[in-house]
TrEMBL record, chains A, B:
Keywords of this entry: Monooxygenase, Oxidoreductase
One Pfam family it belongs to: ABM
Domain of life: Bacteria
Naturally occurring in which organism (per UniProt): Demequina litoralis
Protein name from the UniProt record: Antibiotic biosynthesis monooxygenase
One function term, GO molecular function aspect: monooxygenase activity
Domain ABM: residue ranges: 2-87
C-alpha cells in the first residue's frame, strides 16, 4: 500500500473552500482506500490530508481524474503553499 | 470531532514492535472513528498515526484503557521521542 500525509497551507478565509474542494474531488477515486481531510485545530491557515492507496500508481492516476483536476483548480486560488509532506507505507486502518 | 496526526520516533530495529503494539492496542476503543498507522517510507525510524475521535473526551478516556496502556508499555522501550504532533478537526473520512 502507499500513503501520504500532507499539510496544505491556505489563506484563512479560503480554508473552507479548500476543504470543500478536497472532499468533493476525492469521491470515488479508483484504488483509494482512505482519504481523511482535517482542519488544523491550532493553525487557521492549515489543512491536513491523510491518504491510503492500493498503490503509488493508483495515486498517480488519480491526479488525471477530471474530478480531482477540478478540485485542484478550485482549491488553488486559496493555497499559499505546502507544509509537511510524508510518503508512508500504511500498515493498518482501523475504523473504531 | 477531534483528531490527531502524530509522528512517533523509534529505533530502526524497534519500529515493527511499535507498529504491532499500536495496531493491537487500538482495537475496539470506544468513541474512536478511525485509527491509521503507517510507517514513514523515507525515514526508517518513524511511524505516523492519524486518529479521528468522536470527541476529545473519548480520546482522553482511551488512554486509561488496559489495552492502550499495555500497548504504550510495549512500545515505550522502542520509542526515542515525538516528532510532528497536530491536533485537528476532522472534516471528512472517505473510504475510497
Amino acid at each position: 500500500m502507499y500513503g501520504l500525509i500532507g499539510q496544505l497551507r491556505t489563506t484563512e478565509e479560503g480554508r473552507a473552500a479548500v476543504v470543500a474542494a478536497l472532499v468533493e474531488g476525492a469521491r470515488g477515486m479508483p484504488g483509494n482506500v482512505a482519504y481523511l481531510v482535517a482542519e488544523d485545530a491550532e493553525d487557521p491557515a492549515s489543512v491536513w490530508v491523510t491518504e491510503v492507496w492500493e498503490s503509488e500508481a493508483a495515486h498517480r492516476a488519480s491526479l488525471d481524474l477530471p474530478s480531482v483536476r477540478d478540485a485542484i483548480a478550485r482549491a488553488r486560488p486559496h493555497l499559499t503553499g505546502r507544509g509537511t509532506r510524508v510518503v508512508t507505507r500504511p500498515v493498518a486502518s482501523l475504523d473504531g
